[in-house]
Design brief:
Number of domains: 3
Strand order of the largest sheet: 11-15-10-5-8-9-16
Oligomer: single chain
CATH class of the largest domain: Alpha Beta
Structural class: alpha/beta
Bound molecules: flavin-adenine dinucleotide
CATH architecture of the largest domain: 3-Layer(aba) Sandwich
Largest sheet: 7 strands, parallel
């Protein structure tokens, strides 16, 4: 596609400049000029009263030979690259061997060069770094501009990002701007030996089926991967690759958002593996405030507080409490699961506990298959009685 402004029709009225989300219109001498930020979204055409702008559609190009390499987006917070990015880079380092292709890291944030260069330790051949204060507030529209620009310039065949809360906002936006496909929340990535396409595997239908998805008709092939699913592998003797700083002109990185204030949550540091007893809550608790009941039980038992991913994803309790495949693996002496169904991914993190106690109102819940002691009942009746009994000092079973 190509965009054109007709000199004889344009009046330089600035309407197109006002609607452009990407700062892609410059007005000079009463005439609009489209700059390299343009992503051909067409917003300027819709608003133009003089039919002065046109996009010429070209037949879709199915020749992707100019796309090469795997690019991994590394998210940063408070001046540091998140581990989720290094995990993905480590996985991409394995994939690149099947493609014989370069591995690019794209680091964006208000960070320093040394931090960005850590990507070399996880296999990056090239590090592209956009380091500037404009990225401080994590406005996804600012980030999408630099991601889209770099992808268009470098033309990677594959683009990967972590499915963090920010990644889940940003990466679909980038895929939509580039008009390519995206497989979100993958748990497995591989290269098809014949077609050399990226096989993107993710659970579907509530986790009962694993679907493998390929992207044949557009580039890059894009996927996000949940943090902690892949292993972070630091290379013993990393080679020094190429470092490219992406120059940022703040004027080209405007935002539609307005910062009204920040409320920084203190990240809890809890090491569940330190506890001999763990009391864990799941979706059966109904809402976040009901965790106070489990907190009381954990306090009377001197236990750690765990949770299922459903409870963490609902925002009822923070991620360090999550037990399971994508959370912590624990093996305490006693694990008390309250309102947790016992999905395979949860069991993966706790089934080696010495004694498992399950409280669930559904007698057919899978958690009872691994439980040594099962209480079929409502957590809101059973847990307060347990607390009362423990506080009374009487034995639990007479
Ligand atoms: C790749 C991947 C990784 C995952 N990783 C993890 C992980 O690390 N950890 C994890 O936990 N999950 C993980 N999951 C999610 C997992 O598949 C389940 O969705 C999740 O464990 C369900 O949490 P839950 O048991 O709290 O909720 P649900 O499955 O909804 O179960 C709630 C249970 O509460 C019971 N209940 C409801 N009300 C009451 C009541 N009043 N009293 C008593 N019982 C009640 C219900 O009978 C039900 O059994 C992962 C999934 C995927 C796809």
């Amino acid at each position: 596609m190509d965009i054109k402004v007709f000199k004889d029709k344009c009046t330089g009225c600035k309407l197109c400049q006002k609607v452009c989300f990407y700062d892609a219109v410059d007005i000079k001498d009463k005439m609009a000029y489209i700059n390299e930020n343009c992503i051909l979204c067409g917003a300027c055409i819709e608003v133009c009263k003089f039919d002065a702008i046109e996009i010429k559609e070209q037949a879709p190009d199915m020749d992707f030979t100019d796309h090469r390499g795997i690019m991994v987006y590394l998210e940063t917070h408070d001046g540091r690259v998140l581990d989720s990015g290094f995990e993905l880079l480590s996985e991409a380092n394995k994939l690149k061997k099947d493609l014989d292709t370069p591995l690019y890291a794209l680091v964006v944030g208000n960070i320093c060069q040394d931090e960005a260069k850590k990507a070399f330790r996880y296999g990056a051949d090239w590090v592209y770094a956009a380091m500037h204060a404009v990225f401080e507030n994590h406005f996804d529209d600012i980030y999408s501009k630099v991601l889209v620009k770099t992808i268009k310039k470098v033309k990677p065949d594959i683009f990967l990002g972590a499915a963090t809360p920010f990644g889940r906002t940003l990466i679909p936006k980038v895929a939509a701007i580039l008009k390519t496909g995206l497989t979100a929340d993958c748990t497995g990535l591989a290269i098809d030996s014949q077609s050399k396409l990226l096989k993107q595997t993710r659970p579907t239908f509530g986790g009962n089926v694993l679907a493998t998805i390929v992207c044949k008709k557009t580039r890059p092939q894009m996927a996000t991967v949940r943090p902690h699913v892949m292993e972070k592998i630091e290379i013993d003797a990393p080679k020094q690759g190429q470092f490219k700083e992406i120059k940022i002109q703040p004027g080209h990185y405007g935002t539609q958002y307005k910062m009204t204030g920040t409320d920084k949550k203190q990240e809890e540091s809890i090491n569940l593996s330190d506890y001999e007893v763990i009391v864990a809550g799941g979706r059966g608790l109904g809402e976040g405030k009901n965790f106070s009941m489990l907190k009381e039980l954990s306090e009377v038992l001197g236990a750690g507080l765990g949770a299922s991913r459903a409870a963490v994803d609902s925002g009822w309790i923070s991620y360090p409490h999550q037990v399971g495949q994508t959370g912590k693996t624990v093996n305490p002496k006693i694990y008390i699961a309250c309102g947790i169904s016992g999905a395979i991914q949860h069991l993966a993190g706790m089934q080696t506990s010495d004694i498992i106690v399950a409280i669930n109102k559904d007698a057919a819940a899978p958690i009872f298959k691994v439980a040594n002691y099962g209480i079929v009942g409502d957590v809101f009746e059973v847990v307060p009685k347990l607390i009362e009994r423990i506080k009374s000092g009487k034995p639990l079973i007479e």
